[in-house]
Amino acid sequence: MSLVLFGPPGAGKGTQSQFLVDRMQLKHISTGDLLRAAIKKQTDLGKKAQTFMDKGELVPDDVVIGLINEVVSSDPQAKYLFDGFPRTPPQAEALSTLMKPHGGISKALFLDVPSALLMDRLTGRRVCTKCGESFHVSMNPPKQEGVCDKCQGELIQRDDDKDEVISNRIKVYEENTSPLKNYYQDQGLFSSIDGQGSPEDVYSRLERALKD
Ligand code: AP5
Questions:
Q1: Which of 36, 107, 125, 126 is catalytic?
Q2: Distance of CA 20 to the CA centre of its chain
């Protein structure tokens, strides 16, 4: 089974993806992570993506669809968890076509979190520069401030986790990604999960939704 996990910025997609890939045999594909890796390496694609990501805008559809195409065709047997992709109706159409030979998408799981909570989650997020582990200054603090519990790497704030960029990311989400709720409802694949409460509570709801 391949799954789509979507929702607003800070809804907990990355956090829940870790639970899902740990417990199910799924290959995790996060377009945000792929794009940040390209920026770190300063590839042409990374340099192009950075100009959009720094402002909280979406990277153009052809760029991200190309990235997904490359990953999916490199491992045709795998079952995937798509985290943060698709984000627009054209991306959803492209994914549907790309996944046809792989058995399609089984469910599109939507993490529902009110906007007020998103701001708190994102301004307080700190990520490890070495392993990518995510923490939160008050909701999930590391044992030692500024240091990753897992690998002792340095914890930093993402460039796009600044107030003004977060506001734009939420606006961009409402305009471009929110319509995917209807798209997946029409296909009978949509499942909405309350994303409030502890990460473990949210994961229990995800598990229940997957059994439905
Ligand atoms: P991306 O990296 O995908 O960012 P996002 O969608 O904005 O999502 P986030 O990573 O910010 O949040 P999340 O939902 O994963 O939450 P998390 O689990 O980390 O994309 C970044 C940018 O790349 C985009 O703006 C765009 O420019 C570009 N991009 C990416 N994909 C694209 C695409 N398909 N098309 C075009 N452009 C694309 O949690 C957040 C915080 O909350 C953490 O601190 C965490 O510890 C905490 N937290 C999580 N769950 C809980 C909980 N239950 N209780 C308390 N705290 C919690």
A1: 125
A2: 13
- Look at ligand 1, atom 26, and give the residue with the nearest C-alpha: 58
Q: Which of 55, 158, 162, 181 is catalytic?
A: 158
Whether 87 is catalytic is yes
> In the chain, where do the E strands start and end?
3-6, 27-30, 80-83, 107-112, 125-128, 134-136, 155-156, 190-194
Give which of 44, 48, 81, 56 is closest to 206, Cα–Cα. 81
10 Å CB burial of residue 5 (0-12, 13-18, 19+) is buried
Residue 109 pLDDT greater than 80, yes or no:
yes
Hey, is 27 helix, strand or coil?
strand
Q: What is the pLDDT of residues 15-63, one digit of tens each?
A: 999 999 989 989 999 999 999 999 999 999 999 999 999 999 999 999 9
Amino acid at 32: G
